[in-house]
């Protein structure tokens, strides 16, 4: 028994050492030159076109590899009026050349921060391709009609979850939430529809900047940024390459 305990202790010590020594963790990236074409085409394509290509490729590889990742997951960063940041994962639920759409409770922490400071940053990452995209921009609420249409498109359990959850507020227990759900479930089973809460709806992030990141070996990664022409100084414009519309394209050092 003493030898068994000693062996377990040694194994635990080895595992703890391996876990704590994270400074040595490295994952080699394969060379990819997907961004070079952007810098050699004049004008470069509009950033939404590049985003759509990468999003479609990321979705395809996730399906091919049966990855547990969701292709439309994205980190959303917001900040208070005085600049205190917060970040969380949300799901992208729509996109077009105008912007990127997600839905949430307006009374949640992100909703309150966006009311104070209507700017946000999105980050998408596809580890299967060693790629990420950062998008920064202004944020606007979608129309009530848009929010209603999306709410009605959700599965009934998701509608119920949104209706009963006072998102980001302190609640006394899990039972509190389960009780509210059971109560609404019972009313729905009797024919009552789920009303979209007035505090629940959509946002659209209107991009002012896109950054495409491709992992490379030796950590000499590729970074290409698109910004609006009017946002650059004359000096910055000398290093920029024209892109479609009012966008310009820049290479960033890693």
UniProtKB/TrEMBL annotation:
<feature type="domain" description="Pyridoxamine 5'-phosphate oxidase N-terminal">
    <location>
        <begin position="69"/>
        <end position="180"/>
    </location>
</feature>
<keyword id="KW-0285">Flavoprotein</keyword>
<keyword id="KW-0560">Oxidoreductase</keyword>
<dbReference type="GO" id="GO:0008615">
    <property type="term" value="P:pyridoxine biosynthetic process"/>
</dbReference>
<feature type="domain" description="Pyridoxine 5'-phosphate oxidase dimerisation C-terminal">
    <location>
        <begin position="200"/>
        <end position="254"/>
    </location>
</feature>
<keyword id="KW-0664">Pyridoxine biosynthesis</keyword>
<comment type="subunit">
    <text>Homodimer.</text>
</comment>
<dbReference type="InterPro" id="IPR019740">
    <property type="entry name" value="Pyridox_Oxase_CS"/>
</dbReference>
<dbReference type="InterPro" id="IPR019576">
    <property type="entry name" value="Pyridoxamine_oxidase_dimer_C"/>
</dbReference>
<comment type="function">
    <text>Catalyzes the oxidation of either pyridoxine 5'-phosphate (PNP) or pyridoxamine 5'-phosphate (PMP) into pyridoxal 5'-phosphate (PLP).</text>
</comment>
<keyword id="KW-0288">FMN</keyword>
<dbReference type="Pfam" id="PF10590">
    <property type="entry name" value="PNP_phzG_C"/>
</dbReference>
<dbReference type="InterPro" id="IPR000659">
    <property type="entry name" value="Pyridox_Oxase"/>
</dbReference>
<comment type="similarity">
    <text>Belongs to the pyridoxamine 5'-phosphate oxidase family.</text>
</comment>
<dbReference type="InterPro" id="IPR012349">
    <property type="entry name" value="Split_barrel_FMN-bd"/>
</dbReference>
<dbReference type="GO" id="GO:0010181">
    <property type="term" value="F:FMN binding"/>
</dbReference>
<dbReference type="InterPro" id="IPR011576">
    <property type="entry name" value="Pyridox_Oxase_N"/>
</dbReference>
<dbReference type="GO" id="GO:0004733">
    <property type="term" value="F:pyridoxamine phosphate oxidase activity"/>
</dbReference>
<comment type="pathway">
    <text>Cofactor metabolism; pyridoxal 5'-phosphate salvage; pyridoxal 5'-phosphate from pyridoxamine 5'-phosphate: step 1/1.</text>
</comment>
<dbReference type="Pfam" id="PF01243">
    <property type="entry name" value="PNPOx_N"/>
</dbReference>
<protein>
    <recommendedName>
        <fullName>pyridoxal 5'-phosphate synthase</fullName>
        <ecNumber>1.4.3.5</ecNumber>
    </recommendedName>
</protein>
<comment type="pathway">
    <text>Cofactor metabolism; pyridoxal 5'-phosphate salvage; pyridoxal 5'-phosphate from pyridoxine 5'-phosphate: step 1/1.</text>
</comment>
């Amino acid at each position: 028994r003493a030898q068994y305990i000693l062996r377990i202790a040694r194994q635990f010590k080895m595992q703890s050492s391996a876990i704590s020594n994270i400074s040595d963790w490295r994952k080699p990236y394969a060379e990819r030159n997907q961004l070079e074409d952007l810098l050699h085409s004049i004008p470069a394509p509009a950033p939404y076109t590049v985003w759509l290509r990468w999003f479609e490729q990321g979705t395809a590889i996730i399906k091919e590899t049966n990855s547990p990742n969701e292709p439309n997951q994205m980190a959303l960063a917001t900040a208070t009026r005085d600049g205190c940041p917060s970040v969380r994962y949300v799901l992208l639920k729509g996109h077009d050349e105008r912007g990127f759409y997600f839905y949430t409770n307006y009374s949640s922490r992100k909703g309150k921060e966006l009311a104070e400071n209507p700017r946000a940053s999105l980050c998408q990452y596809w580890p299967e391709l060693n790629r990420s995209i950062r998008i920064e921009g202004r944020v606007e609420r979608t129309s009530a009609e848009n929010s209603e249409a999306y709410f009605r498109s959700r599965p009934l359990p998701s509608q119920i979850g949104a209706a009963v959850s006072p998102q980001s507020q302190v609640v006394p227990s899990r039972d509190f939430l389960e009780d509210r759900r059971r109560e609404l479930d019972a009313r729905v089973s009797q024919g009552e529809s789920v009303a979209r809460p007035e505090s629940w709806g959509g946002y659209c992030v209107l991009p002012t900047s896109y950054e495409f990141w491709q992992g490379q070996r030796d950590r000499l990664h590729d970074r290409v940024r698109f910004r609006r022409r009017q946002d650059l100084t004359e000096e910055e414009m000398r290093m920029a390459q024209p892109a479609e519309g009012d966008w310009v394209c820049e290479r960033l050092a890693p």
